[in-house]
Amino acid sequence: MRKKIVAGNWKMNTTVNEAIVLVRAMLPDLDKVQGMEKLLCPPFISLAAIKELLKGTSVKLGAQNMYFKDKGAYTGEISPIMLAGMCDFVILGHSERRQLMGEIDEVVNKKVKTAFEFGLTPILCVGETLAENEAGGTEKVITTQVKAALAGIAPTDKLVVAYEPIWAIGTGQNATPEQAEEVHDYIRQLIAGRYGKSLSACAIILYGGSVKP
Asked: For an engineered disulfide with 162, which of 1, 126, 198, 208 has Cβ 3.0 to 4.6 Å away?
C-alpha cells in the first residue's frame, strides 16, 4: 500500500527566526499525526535550523529547488551535495519556476535525474494554465511534462508527482476533487505506460493547487 504525503511549501516566506517560531508552535500537534508522511519545505536559509528542530520527530524536511550540477560557478544555485543529508525531498519543476524563471522540461529532467543520483526524493510538479485547461489541453500538457521529466530515469518505486493546476493557485479558483482525481488517474496511466502497473501503483501523486476548508 502506497503511503500518503502532506507537504507544506513555504515558498519565499519567513525569516530564519520566524521559521523556528512557526515550527516550534506546530510541531507538537504535527508530530502526533499518523498514517502519512509529513513534510516541511521552508526557504533554503532555514533548512539547517529546522533540521535540528525535527530531530527525533516523524516530520521530514524538503527543499524547494535544486540545481543539476554538484558544484561550480553557478551563482545563487543550491547543489545536490548541499542538500544530501540535509533533506529527504526536493520540489522540482514547480509552476512558479517554470513560469517566472523560464525553467523548461529539459532542465527539470536533469534535476530529477540528479536528485535520484544523490539520494533525494524529487517531488515532480506538473500542471496546466487556465488557457490550456479551458482549451481542453490538460492531458496534452501533462503528457509532455511527465514524459519529458522522466526521460532516461530508471524504474523506481520512489516516484512522487504533484499535480498543481496553475489556474487553481492563488487565483480563488479550485479544482474539484473530481477534476483532481481525473488528472491523478491520467498521471498514473502515464507512469504505468513507462514503468508498468506495479511501479505505477507505488507512485505517490499529490494535489498542489489551492483548497478551501
From this structure: 208
Contacts 24+ apart (CB under 8 A), 189-195: 190/142, 190/143, 190/146, 190/147, 191/146, 191/150, 191/159, 191/161, 194/147, 194/150, 195/155, 195/156, 195/159
Q: For 48-97, write each residue's pLDDT tens digit.
A: 999 999 999 999 999 999 999 999 999 999 999 999 999 999 999 999 99
The CATH number of whichever domain residue 187 belongs to comes to 3.20.20.70
pTM of the full structure: 0.95
Task: Tell me the mean pLDDT in the region 198-211.
Answer: 88
Select which of 18, 52, 94, 181 is catalytic.
Answer: 94
94 catalytic? Reply is yes
Within a domain: 53:
no
Catalytic-residue membership of 164: yes
- Find the catalytic residue in 18, 128, 164, 184: 164
CA distance 63 to 109: 17
Number of domains composing the chain: 1
Q: Phi and psi (nearest 5°) for 71?
A: -170, 170
Q: Give CA torsion, residues 71, 76, 78, 81, to 10 deg.
A: 30
pLDDT at residue number 87: 96
Range of the domain at 187: 101-213
Q: How large is the average pLDDT for residues 175-190? A: 94
75 within domain boundaries: no
Reported confidence tier of residue 3, pLDDT bands at 50, 70, 90: confident
